[in-house]
Specification:
Helix content: 25-40%
Number of domains: 2
Length: 399
């Protein structure tokens, strides 16, 4: 049996969709920083992808980015055209099928909207954007273009995350009425490559946009993404603005002066259906964890052990609490393990692959904006409520 046929047989046997290599997807990458590396590594594994172009505001950065992958899986860096901005790239490259947008938070919306206006499908990294208004503008551009835009929430493709939704859908917990979620790092403000994450003009939002959106998506997706109605929020940045914090890591103390986002946030959210969401997230805190995720229902509850950022992994098994015939029971949900040596089992691979399949087949976005709008509205609501010092009503118009 020829090698190609054998690979196809293995794909079918494992349940993996066979890739049509005769139908190529021309892809560009906007923003060539750290997260773009993860996108590039996945694209290089896909035989139906042609990386044609890239853009970055920093002169020479895009060229250097692609050069490091030259020769990998037949990739020819010299065939990739590089541009100084997303507009220059999208104006020149008139036959693009899709782009990965990997820029800093503040420019997510403008890049996504321009790509959609040019008739290009979009894989947009999280957070979707930084305000509810931007999210609505993206959705309007999406609707007008008829193209696909999927938001980069790869954790929901993890089998353990999917198990949470399966448990909820099974009805074993009954009616859900209270959820506690969040998480965070004891010492983990992200400054490995500079300060774009922590500066107000580039990051705009901090811990919530980086890792808080993941924990929100985990629980909201599990319960069907009910609409948020009201938010009481709190944000602070005590540790991020402390020079001593950075000195502990051998980083410049001046980072404290540049810190303009939140390193901790909390929110109390009322959702449709009489559900209460109690949320907290931290980049830095004098605590190991602000608590496990708890989903409480009228027939049972689910405890999901805390992690730093809900990136798709669980350190310990989940536990379901129920009562049967007058006995209080605890059922451990076995953790689902994936082969770490199989790159196609990674959540990031699945994120990119599911997006490309939707583009090729005319399908729907794997992580649709109609859901992540609610995620963004909660984050924006926490920021606004914290500034005003009172509860706010979330009023979202139809798009």
């Amino acid at each position: 049996m020829a090698g190609g046929n054998l690979d196809a047989f293995k794909a079918v046997a494992s349940g993996e969709k066979e890739i049509d290599v005769n139908k190529k997807v021309k892809v560009g990458i906007i923003g060539t920083g750290w997260i773009a590396e993860a996108h590039m590594q996945q694209y290089l594994q896909m035989p139906d992808v042609i990386i044609t172009c890239g853009a970055d505001l920093i002169p020479g950065k895009a060229e250097a980015f692609f050069k490091q992958y030259d020769g990998q899986n037949g990739f020819d860096a010299s065939s990739v055209k590089c541009y100084p901005s997303h507009k220059a790239m999208l104006d020149a490259e008139t036959d693009l099928d899709a782009v990965s947008i990997c820029t800093y938070n503040a420019t997510h919306a403008e890049c996504a909207i321009y790509a959609l206006e040019k008739g290009v499908n979009v894989m947009l990294e999280k957070p979707m954007c930084v305000t509810t208004e931007e999210a609505l503008d993206i959705m309007k551009a999406e609707k007008k273009s008829g193209k696909i835009i999927s938001i980069g929430f790869q954790p929901r493709l993890d089998p353990n995350m999917q198990k949470i939704k399966q448990i909820i859908d099974s009805g074993v917990l009954g009616k859900i009425y209270y959820i506690q979620t969040g998480g965070g790092r004891r010492h983990g403000i992200p400054t490995p490559f500079g300060t774009t994450f922590i500066q107000k003009d580039t990051g705009v939002i901090g811990a919530m946009g980086d890792i808080g959106c993941y924990s929100l998506d985990m629980v909201l997706n599990a319960i069907g993404y009910p609409k948020p109605l009201t938010v009481t929020g709190y944000t602070s940045n005590y540790l991020g603005t402390d020079p001593h914090y950075y000195e502990m890591d051998g980083k410049p103390a001046e980072y404290a002066d540049l810190f303009g986002v939140e390193d901790f946030a909390a929110g109390f959210v009322r959702l449709e259906g009489g559900i209460i969401l109690d949320f907290r997230i931290a980049w830095a805190m004098h605590l190991d964890t602000p608590g496990d995720t708890i989903i409480m229902g009228t027939k049972g509850s689910l405890r999901i052990p805390s992690t730093e950022c809900w990136n798709g992994s669980l350190d310990d098994p989940m536990v379901i609490y129920t009562e049967v015939a007058g006995s209080q029971l605890q059922t451990t949900v076995p953790k689902i393990y994936v082969d770490p040596q199989d790159p196609k089992q990674s959540n990031f691979y699945k994120k990119i692959r599911s997006f490309l399949d939707a583009v090729k087949d005319g399908g729907t976005a794997p992580v649709p904006t109609s859901q992540i709008l609610y995620n963004q509205a909660i984050i924006d609501g926490i920021v606004t409520s914290s500034k005003l010092g009172k509860e706010i009503v979330i009023d979202l118009p139809e798009v």
